[in-house]
Input
Amino acid sequence: MSYNKILFFVLLSLFIKVLPAEEKSASALPDPLTLEFALSLSGNDHPDNMVARSRLQGAQASRDNIEGNNGLQTRLDGRLRWVEPADRVLYSDRDDHNIALSASKRLYDFGRSSADTAAAEASVNSQRWLLADQQSQHRIDIMQAFFDVILADLAYARDNELMAIAFVRFDRAQDRNKLGQIADVDLLEAENTYYQSRSIRYASDVARRASRSKLANILNYPGELPANLVRPELAVLNREVPDIDVLHKEALLTNAGLLAIRQEVESAQQRVLSARARKKPTIDLELQAAEYSRKFRSSDRYRGGFIFEMPLSSSGALDAAIAQQRSQLIETRALLRKAEMDVQQQVLESWQLLTVVKAQRDEAAVFSEFRDAALDKDRGLYELDVAADLGDSLALYSAALYQSAKADFDFALAWARLDALLGKRVAAVKVNDGVVKK
Output
C-alpha cells in the first residue's frame, strides 16, 4: 500500500473518531424539556450574556490598566549606532552604542492615583451588579418563553376543538339546507363561522412554532425547536404577598440596578477628586543604570533622583475638567433618584399585579371545576343517547385549561419580576414530595 493511501486512511479514522465528539458538544435540547433544565442554561454563551460579561471584563481591564500605570514602571532601552566623528574631536571612535535600564515610580500625587483606582473599582462593581440584573432578566425571559410554548399548545387545542365544532355544524347545516329546513342565509352564517374558526386555528398552529423558535433562541439553541415541554408545578403559587411598604424598603436596599447606579455615583465622586488633584504637584522617583561605548562627561552609568512637577497654568483646562466631572456627578445622582422612583413604581405595579392575578387564578379554578363537571354531565347524556354530541363542552373545557394555565404562569412571572426587583435570584421552583427545589 502506498504512503498516500496509508495517510488517507489514518486521517479518515481520526475524522470518524472526532465526529461524535463534535456532535456531543453541540447536543440538542432534551425531550421532553423541563423548566429546570431551561433555566440551567441561563448562564451559557447567549449573546445577551456575552455582552454583559464583556462589559464587566472591560471595566476590569480599565481598572487593571490604571493600577498598572500607578505601579513601578521599568524600561530597557538599547541603541546600536555607528558615526563618522567630526575633525579634531576628542573621541574619534565610530561605535556609539548604549544600553540603559530605567525604573520610575509615582511617590505622591495628592490622592490622584488612589481616586482613579477607586473610580475604576466602583465601575467594576457597577458592572457586576448589572451582570446580576441581566442574569435575572434573562431567567425571566426563559420562563416567559417556556410558558408561552405551553400556552400556545393549549390555545391550539382549544381552537382546534372550536373549528371541529364549527365544521360539524356547517356540515349539518348543508344537509338541512338541502332538505329545505333552513334558509340559505343560515347556511352562509354556519359556513362563515367555520371559516373564521379555521383561520383562528391556523393562526394558533403558527404561534406554536413561533413560540418554540423564540424559546430556542433564548436558550441559545437557534433552530432546535423543542417538541415536548413538561408543565412545571410551581411552589411559588403558594407564596403570600407581603406588605407593600416592606417591599419598597427592601427594593431600595437590594435592587441590583440601583446598586449598580450607586456604584456609578461613587465612581463619579472619585473622578471629581482626581480632577481636583491634577491642580496639585506630583513627586516621582526615577532610577537608571546604563552602559555606553563612547564615554562623555554626560554618560552617567547610574542616575537617581526625585522629579517634582507643579502645574502653574493650564489656560482653564483643569478647571473645565473639574466642572465636567462635577456635571457628570450631578447627572448620575439624578439618574439614581429617577431609578429609585422607577423601582418603587415597578414594585407597586408588581404587587398590584399579584393581587389581580391571584383573583384571576381563583376565577380560573372555579371555571375549570365548572367546565369539568359540565363535561361529565354532557358525556353522560351523550352515552345515554340523549344528546347527539358533546356540543361545546370539549372546547369550553380546553378553554378552561388554557385560562387556568395562563393565570398560574402570570402569577409565577409576577413573582419572578418582583424577586428580580428585590435583588433576589430568580429560580425555578418545583414541588417534589413537599420539598421545594431551586
Remarks:
- Confidence is low (pLDDT under 50) at residues 1-26, 381-390, 431-438.
- The first helix runs from residue 3 to 25.
- The domain at 23-72+109-279+317-437 is CATH 1.20.1600.10 (Outer membrane efflux proteins (OEP)).
